[in-house]
Protein backbone atom coordinates (compact mmCIF):
# COMPACT_ATOMS: atom_id res chain seq x y z
CA UNK A 1 0.00 0.00 0.00
CA UNK A 2 1.18 3.50 -0.74
CA UNK A 3 1.08 6.19 1.94
CA UNK A 4 -1.71 8.74 1.78
CA UNK A 5 -0.78 12.33 1.09
CA UNK A 6 -0.58 14.54 4.15
CA UNK A 7 -0.87 18.31 3.92
CA UNK A 8 2.27 20.30 4.58
CA UNK A 9 0.48 21.92 7.51
CA UNK A 10 -0.02 18.53 9.22
CA UNK A 11 3.31 16.94 8.25
CA UNK A 12 5.29 18.57 11.08
CA UNK A 13 2.80 17.37 13.73
CA UNK A 14 2.70 13.86 12.22
CA UNK A 15 6.51 13.71 12.30
CA UNK A 16 6.54 14.91 15.92
CA UNK A 17 4.01 12.29 17.02
CA UNK A 18 5.80 9.48 15.16
CA UNK A 19 9.16 10.49 16.67
CA UNK A 20 7.58 10.52 20.14
CA UNK A 21 6.09 7.04 19.61
CA UNK A 22 9.49 5.79 18.37
CA UNK A 23 11.24 7.32 21.40
CA UNK A 24 8.74 5.64 23.77
CA UNK A 25 9.31 2.34 21.89
CA UNK A 26 5.58 2.03 21.20
CA UNK A 27 6.33 1.61 17.50
CA UNK A 28 9.42 0.59 15.55
CA UNK A 29 10.62 1.15 11.99
CA UNK A 30 9.48 -1.47 9.50
CA UNK A 31 9.97 -2.24 5.81
CA UNK A 32 7.16 -4.80 5.75
CA UNK A 33 5.08 -5.24 2.62
CA UNK A 34 2.08 -5.25 4.99
CA UNK A 35 2.62 -1.68 6.18
CA UNK A 36 -0.53 0.44 6.06
CA UNK A 37 -1.10 4.16 5.58
CA UNK A 38 -1.88 6.50 8.44
CA UNK A 39 -4.91 8.74 8.56
CA UNK A 40 -5.03 11.99 10.54
CA UNK A 41 -8.25 12.55 12.48
CA UNK A 42 -9.01 15.93 14.03
CA UNK A 43 -9.87 15.88 17.73
CA UNK A 44 -12.31 18.27 19.40
CA UNK A 45 -9.45 20.22 21.00
CA UNK A 46 -7.86 20.89 17.59
CA UNK A 47 -5.03 18.37 17.87
CA UNK A 48 -4.76 15.34 15.61
CA UNK A 49 -4.93 11.63 16.27
CA UNK A 50 -2.90 9.24 14.14
CA UNK A 51 -4.92 6.25 12.98
CA UNK A 52 -4.04 3.36 10.69
CA UNK A 53 -6.19 2.37 7.72
CA UNK A 54 -6.47 -1.43 7.95
CA UNK A 55 -9.22 -1.85 5.33
CA UNK A 56 -6.85 -3.60 2.89
CA UNK A 57 -5.61 -5.97 5.60
CA UNK A 58 -9.17 -6.66 6.77
CA UNK A 59 -10.05 -7.92 3.29
CA UNK A 60 -7.55 -10.78 3.85
CA UNK A 61 -8.65 -11.55 7.41
CA UNK A 62 -10.60 -14.76 7.94
CA UNK A 63 -13.32 -14.70 10.58
CA UNK A 64 -13.12 -17.24 13.41
CA UNK A 65 -15.16 -20.36 12.69
CA UNK A 66 -16.01 -20.58 16.40
CA UNK A 67 -16.18 -17.09 17.87
CA UNK A 68 -15.37 -16.72 21.55
CA UNK A 69 -18.30 -16.40 23.91
CA UNK A 70 -18.66 -13.21 25.85
CA UNK A 71 -19.08 -13.11 29.65
CA UNK A 72 -22.89 -12.82 29.40
CA UNK A 73 -23.20 -16.14 27.56
TrEMBL record:
InterPro entries, sorted: DNA/RNA_pol_sf (IPR043502), RTL1-rel (IPR032567)
Gene3D superfamilies in the record: HIV Type 1 Reverse Transcriptase, subunit A, domain 1
GO biological process: DNA biosynthetic process
Protein name: Transposon Ty3-I Gag-Pol polyprotein
Organism of derivation: Trichonephila inaurata madagascariensis
Name of the gene: TY3B-I_1252
Amino acid sequence: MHPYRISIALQQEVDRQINELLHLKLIEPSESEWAHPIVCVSKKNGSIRLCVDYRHLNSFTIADAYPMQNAKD
